[in-house]
Structure formats: structure tokens, C-alpha cells
Amino acid sequence: SVLVAMHDRAPQLKVCEDRLTVTGERGYCMARATHGAHYGSWFYEIKITDMPDGSHVRLGWSQELGNLQGPCGYDKFSYAWRSRKGTRFHESIGKHFTDGGYGQGDVIGMLIVLPKDD
Amino acid sequence: DLVKFNQLQFRKKQLKFARSRIHDWGLFALEPIAADEMVIEYVGQMIRPVVADLREKKYNEMGIGSSYLFRVDFETIIDATKCGNLARFINHSCNPNCYAKVITVEGQKKIVIYSKQPIDIDEEITYDYKFPIEDEKIACLCGAPQCRGYLN
Amino acid sequence: WSAFAPDFKELDENVEYEERESEFDVQDD
């Protein structure tokens, strides 16, 4: 089953016992999952269980070289959709993606379609 | 360290900011300082290395340079570019009369400048910046006989 | 000496920097 990785993540993030819940305190950093997608179409869902005031999240896909000490979408190895204003990010460049963001109680679906290389 | 650090707070050394022979302006002793005394804490904003990397690029573009960023450990950098204390004005020397040391006081890491040897009144306070070696060199103006020629 | 850094803020001790949500963003529409 896909869990939050114990080591492929910024050490300052808190991962709960169930290894399905991540909490960060100071400044953006990233946690990746235990499994990656290499080709074909893959989909995962995240339920936002708690968003204290002023907290935000960027969810998406990252290759293993994505910098864990920055947000998802920080460099050229990751792509993210932000909870604030629903902006999408890649290489730290924000572009309009959805009108309005998402927050507590939402279930976010993430699909990636990777060509099967020969 | 805690006792000695508290002494520093109460026994802040009298220093002055004045024209320096090494580089524009520097910090000078206004009182004689014995060897191995705490001279001043290097104070600034505590930031993460990834934030320091971004700022270093921005400061270089602004022509400020990155010489007010001081690495405490792998988690924290002190940035004294926009806010800090007099310590940011201490010049580098390859033959310094002080040295920088990271001490932990009540769980907080601090950078403290200590004297290596007795320092006379009006003598310039200097320490070795120990900058990482880089391709783009910054010339060293310390004028010491064994000057290494560059800060980095 | 603050004359040499007009927008310089003098501190007595280290302050923790509160990162902004858009700290790392190059541009954010």
C-alpha cells in the first residue's frame, strides 16, 4: 500500500503513526510517497483533514530529484496545485489553474498520464 | 557557555564603527580586551539554507553580495544583511585577532566572536570568515604577511 | 553606521524569520 516515505521526505515534517498523514510547521518542504509511477495513468486522492488558519499546502507529483527542502513545484522536478487560490506551480512559477483554492474537508484527486517509453 | 554568554550581555565590549585600513569601514576596540574574551555576538535573522540560497541569488543581483550570511549548522543560517548588529561590520583577516564560534545557550545556537589574543584600544577587530572556496573570487585586502589573497 | 544601510533594522538578538507562503515563488498570478 502507498504510504508517506519515512526517508524520502524533509526530516522536519511530522508523519503520523499511520504514515498517511503529514504535518509541517515552519516554511514549505516536501514529503514523497513510498511508491512512484513510471509510465501509464495513475491516480491518487488526498483528504484535507485539517487546515489551521494561515496554513497552506501544495500537492502534486515529484521526481526523486525534487528538492525536499522546498515546496512541491519548486524546481523542474515537480508539479503542484496550491490550496491558496488554486494556483498551479512548476519551477516556482505560479499560473492560474482553478478559480479559488481548496481546503479542509476537500478530497483532492491527482492524475498523471505518463507515456510508455519503448 | 551560558555564564560566559551572560557576562557578554552585561560586559558588552565598547566597540566603535570607524574607517578601516582593510576595507572601507570596520569595528574597533574602545577598551583593551583580554585574550579569550567574548567580544560580540553575530546577530541577524535565522533562516533555512534553502531560503539563504534564494537570498544569496537576490543579493548578488542587487549587488549587495552574500557576505552577511553566516552558516550556523546544516539547518540554520544567520542573515545580517537587512537586520542585525555591529558584528556584521567586522572585517576578515588572514591573520585575525579574533575567531567565531557557535555556542548553544538555552537550546539556542549563537555565533559569538571571541578574542584570540589581547586587543588594544583602537585596534581593528578581525576574524577569519572561512568562506567556502568558490570560482568567483573576492580579493582579500587584509594586508597580513601570510594573506591568502582571497576571502573564498 | 546605520546610515550605510538605510532600511537596516538593528537587533539585539537573533530573530526567527517567518517564511511567507509565496517565499519560493518566482511569480504568482
From TrEMBL, chain A:
<protein>
    <recommendedName>
        <fullName>B30.2/SPRY domain-containing protein</fullName>
    </recommendedName>
</protein>
<feature type="domain" description="B30.2/SPRY">
    <location>
        <begin position="1"/>
        <end position="118"/>
    </location>
</feature>
